[in-house]
Design brief:
Layout: H1 9-21, H2 28-48, E1 53-55, H3 60-64, E2 71-73, E3 76-78, E4 83-89, H4 102-113, E5 118-121, E6 126-131, E7 134-143, E8 150-153, E9 159-162, H5 164-178, H6 187-203, E10 210-211, E11 216-217, H7 222-236, H8 242-258, E12 283-284, E13 287-291, H9 298-323, H10 327-338, H11 341-344
Parallel strand pairs: 4-7
Antiparallel strand pairs: 1-4, 2-3, 5-6, 6-7, 7-8, 8-9, 10-11, 12-13
Helix pairs in contact: 2-4, 6-7, 7-8, 8-9, 9-10
Length: 347
C-alpha cells in the first residue's frame, strides 16, 4: 500500500464518488424548510390532542453528516437517507394519562398534516414520503428526567433507553478527530461509503435482503454499519487515501465479524460485563443493554462475515491493480463493491 498516493487515479475517483453519494447540497435549504414546516404542523396537531412536545433535538444521518443521496436509476437503487425528526414528549397527556401508543398517535398527526402523501409506520418511526428526493422519519419518544436521554417505544411495545444527542456526538466527535489527520479522508465520509456498500451487498444477498413480496426487511440496520465503522476507526484511524483506509478497515472487521468478537464502546459507559450475553455482541454505544445482533442466527452471521471477507479481498486487488496501472480492472472491482453508480460518478 505504500505506493498508493493521493495523486493516484484511484484516489481521485474515490474523492469524486464520495462527494457524489452525499445528499445534494443544493437541496439542503429546501429540505430544512420542509423539515421545519413538518415539525410545526405535527407539534400543533399533537398539542390539539393534549400531547406536549418538549423538544426536537437534531438527530439521524442528517445531523451526523453521514446521509446518502437517494438514487433510483436502473437496477442501482439506493433509498438514501430519510431526515429524522425526533419529537420528545411529556410522558403524560393533558389529562395526566400515561402515553404509550406513540406511533399510532403520531401517525394520525402526520396524516392530518399531509393527507395526500405516502405515510408508513416503521418499527420506531412514522415515515413521510414527500417525493423521490425527500422523506422524513418522525420519531416520537418519551422524555425522561435527563434532557439528553429519551425512551423510544417501538411498534412491538418494547421500550429502549436512548439519547439522540449522544448518538449524534458519538459520530461528530470521530469526524472531528479524523480532521486532524493529514489528507482529505474524513470519518463521516467513510461511514457514507460503508453504508452505500451495504445497500449493494444486501441487494444480492439471500438472508440479508429486503423481500418485496412480503415486505420483510432483513438488511443489516444502518446503526450496525455505523458502529462497526466506529470500531474500526477507533482501532485504525484514517489513512491519506480512501482505498488504504477501507482496505485496512475491512481486513480488521472481516476478522471481527467472522469470529464474532464483541463490539462495544466506552464513550458513555464503563466496559460492560458481556459474559451472560448470547450470540454475537454488538452493543449500542449509549445503552450497554441494547445488543443489536442478539437475534441474528448463524445464516445471517455467516453471510454478513462473507460480505466483509469479499470486500477485504476486493480492496487488496483494487490497490494492486491501481499500482500496476490496470485502471479498468480496478474499476470493475469497485463496481462490485458500490454498484454501477461508481463507474458513472467517479470522474
Amino acid at each position: 500500500m505504500s505506493q498508493l498516493t493521493t495523486h493516484s487515479t484511484l484516489h481521485s475517483r474515490m474523492c469524486c464518488f464520495v462527494d457524489w453519494i452525499a445528499p445534494d447540497p443544493d437541496k439542503k435549504e429546501y429540505n430544512t424548510s420542509q423539515a421545519d414546516t413538518l415539525t410545526e404542523r405535527v407539534i400543533k396537531n399533537a398539542k390539539d390532542d393534549g400531547v406536549t412536545v418538549v423538544s426536537t433535538p437534531r438527530g439521524g444521518s442528517d445531523a451526523k453528516e453521514t446521509g446518502l443521496r437517494r438514487h433510483y436509476m436502473g437496477h442501482s437503487e439506493v433509498d438514501g437517507y430519510d431526515i429524522d425528526i425526533p419529537m420528545v414528549i411529556k410522558p403524560e397527556d393533558a389529562d395526566g394519562k400515561k402515553l404509550e401508543e406513540l406511533l399510532t398517535k403520531f401517525e394520525k398527526y402526520v396524516r392530518k398534516s399531509y393527507p395526500n402523501s405516502t405515510i408508513n409506520v416503521t418499527n420506531s418511526s412514522v415515515n413521510l414520503i414527500l417525493s423521490n428526493d425527500l422523506a422524513f422519519d418522525v420519531v416520537p419518544m418519551q422524555a425522561t428526567s435527563k434532557t439528553d436521554e429519551q425512551i423510544l417505544i417501538k411498534k412491538s411495545g418494547d421500550k429502549l433507553k436512548t439519547s439522540v444527542q449522544k448518538h449524534r456526538e458519538f459520530t461528530t466527535s470521530r469526524t472531528k478527530t479524523s480532521k486532524a489527520s493529514p489528507g482529505r479522508v474524513k470519518y463521516n465520509e467513510c461511514v457514507r461509503l460503508m453504508k452505500w456498500w451495504k445497500e449493494f451487498q444486501a441487494d444480492s444477498s439471500y438472508y440479508l435482503d429486503y423481500d418485496e413480496s412480503t415486505g420483510i426487511d432483513n438488511r443489516p440496520p444502518t446503526a450496525l454499519i455505523d458502529w462497526l465503522t466506529a470500531f474500526a476507526f477507533d482501532k485504525l484511524g484514517v489513512e491519506k487515501t480512501y482505498a488504504e483506509t477501507l482496505a485496512r478497515w475491512f481486513s480488521y472487521l472481516a476478522n471481527i465479524v467472522r469470529n464474532q468478537k464483541p463490539v462495544y464502546f466506552t464513550d458513555y459507559y464503563s466496559a460492560p460485563n458481556i459474559s451472560d450475553m448470547t450470540g454475537w455482541v454488538v452493543l449500542d454505544p449509549v445503552n450497554s443493554g441494547n445488543n443489536i445482533t442478539a437475534k441474528w442466527d448463524k445464516n445471517k452471521l455467516n453471510e454478513f462475515a462473507t460480505w466483509f471477507e469479499n470486500a477485504r479481498d476486493s480492496w487488496n486487488r483494487i490497490i494492486r491493480y491501481n499500482i500496476d496501472g490496470e485502471d479498468q480492472l480496478a474499476t470493475d472491482e469497485l463496481v462490485k463493491l458500490f454498484g454501477n453508480p461508481f463507474k458513472n460518478h467517479c470522474d
